Amino acid sequence: MSHGGIRRLHRPVLRWVTVGTIVICLCWTVQRQDWSAARPVLTLRALPYLTASGALNVLALVCAMLSWRSIMAEVGHPLPRLQAARIYFFGMTAKYLPGQFWVAITQARLAKRAGVPGRASIAVFLLNVPVILLTGLLVGALAGPGVLGGWSWLLLAPAFLLGLVLIRPELVGRTAAVVARLTRKEPPAVTTGPKTRAAVGWLLACRLVSGLHLWLLVMALGAPAMRSLSLSIGAFSLAAVSGMLVVFLPDGAVVRELLMAGVLVQVLPVTAAAAAAIASRAVCLGSELLLTAVILGNAAVVRNRQAPAKQGA
């Protein structure tokens, strides 16, 4: 068999091995959760809250994808929305593998088929990291008093840094270049500007909307609406950041739930706070998989419609 034939055989095998590994790690993540704690939320009375919570999380995921797409455009590779969604959401399933770099690798492989060179995909990943951390910590400051007490003012530092990013977005590119050098990667050759501001805006919207999904679950368990609003938004934002930083666990499994529950005990009993955190994981997992399936299904339909046209041509 020729070298080219071996490469053509190697690609589908590697693709299916990657998908199979993601599925195994996803099953492991699901099995490790104590879903029994979420039973108080799984009632008919809570069904409207669960439905609205899932819808809000889908909206938040779309905002996150649009933020990633803005950064991709910033490095010179604007993508159609559907194509960007397919790359982003299918790539994000790799977060259930330990280590965030699997997300970057999977998205890079998918983006390469869309004509995006690997170097550009790595640049997007490096540019995205400071944006994710800054927006996550800034919105997480809403839960600061419950996490750090008198030291909660420390979480306001990202507000200053985020202000600098909005005024001088090229700072994100310089930060990514420093990270690239530290990790012995080639620094991304990008000039960050208006699209970086757009990425920050979309990700801030993602943080706020995704926190509302937790707020609805908390209210379903009897927490006071106004008192739990900012607490829920901040708690989920901090939990999302922790899930990214705890790289040795798939999507921050367990750690994310412990952090959320630890904050929510200010408005709920311990068992109810644990139920809200576990229910949040279920809602996020379900909505992510459903949205990914819908987008991939839509992409398959589009390909099938285009195939006869290409054959006729």
Task: Jot down its keywords.
313 residues; mainly alpha; 75% helix
> SSE order in H/E notation?
HHHHHHHHHHHH
Shape: globular
Average pLDDT metric: 78
* Annotation field: number of helices: 12
Gap between N and C termini? 32 Å
- Helix content estimate: over 70%
Radius of gyration: 20 Å
Proportion of residues in β-strands: under 5%
Please report the total strand number as a whole number: 0
Task: Outline the biggest β-sheet.
Answer: none
Structural class: mainly alpha
Unreliable residue stretches? 1-11
Description of the structure:
75% of the residues lie in helices and 0% in strands. It has 313 residues and is mostly helical. The radius of gyration is 20 Å and the shape is globular.
In brief:
This protein has about 325 residues and is an all-alpha fold. The chain contains 12 helices and no strands. Helix 5 packs across helix 9 (about 195-220).
